[in-house]
Design a protein that fits this description.
5-stranded parallel β-sheet; Rossmann fold; 42% helix; Arc Repressor Mutant, subunit A; 225 residues; alpha/beta; 4-stranded antiparallel β-sheet
Length: 225
């Protein structure tokens, strides 16, 4: 059985050691880098299944490393950082981070998020249909059904739904969604997003006022579950 490879980019030796012990005991292969430059080089040479990235690196910021990675690296990147302010979280998610954990973190939670990120990556192309309760979304057929009845969506509603479903469980920031659906010039037009999310909830949620699928992450964005 092949082990999933995880690259740790963190300048703190004790954090890298802790992560190495826990990851290897859970059957992951571990690669380590203490600087952004070395991390980028190892990511290119080893193509890990997932990267754990610290924002406070000695040679360049983790945000810079993330931006460079996302020019070519399509696999999950989870941020581990002592910085827990909303601006840093939003910036990291906007630049393509899959998830964000604040130090000190609970090992069990980190392992669960790693498993989830790798599982989503491996099954994205194998699972064109999503079923949850009375909702069936078939991305390959571009159809949406609720309680067995086809739901008619506008082109924009469908594009928004598809983006959220393809990133199931991942928080997408307002700016990221607006850029992907409406374009770069609309990244501040959050009222557009509120209107269309409300329309999707009205058409697809059992109770739009208490949504189970289209979840608001206050001050950050939305996720589909």
């Amino acid at each position: 059985m092949n082990k999933s490879a995880i690259l740790i980019i963190d300048d703190e030796p004790q954090i890298r050691k802790l992560l190495q012990i826990n990851l290897e005991s859970n059957d992951y292969k571990v690669i380590e880098a203490s600087t952004g430059k070395d991390g980028l080089a190892l990511a290119a040479s080893h193509l890990p299944d997932l990267i754990l990235l610290d924002l406070g690196l000695p040679d360049k910021s983790g945000h810079e490393v993330l931006t460079e990675l996302k020019e070519w690296f399509a696999r999950p990147v989870i941020i581990l950082s002592v910085q827990d302010n909303e601006a840093d979280i939003i910036q990291a998610l906007d630049h393509g981070a899959t998830d964000y954990l604040t130090k000190p973190f609970r090992t069990g939670e980190l392992l669960a998020r790693i498993r989830s990120a790798i599982r989503r990556e491996q099954t994205d192309e194998l699972k064109p249909a999503v079923s949850s309760g009375n909702l069936l979304i078939d991305l390959s057929a571009r159809t949406v059904a609720r309680e067995g009845e086809i739901v008619k969506l506008t082109s924009t509603e469908y594009n928004l739904l598809s983006l959220l479903v393809r990133n199931e469980g991942r928080v997408l920031t307002h700016r990221y969604i607006l850029k992907e659906i409406w374009g770069v010039g609309f990244q501040e037009e959050t009222q557009y997003l509120r209107v269309y999310v409300a329309q999707l909830r009205k058409k697809l949620e059992e109770n739009p006022n208490h949504p189970k699928h289209f979840i608001t992450e206050s001050g950050v964005g939305y996720r589909f579950q």
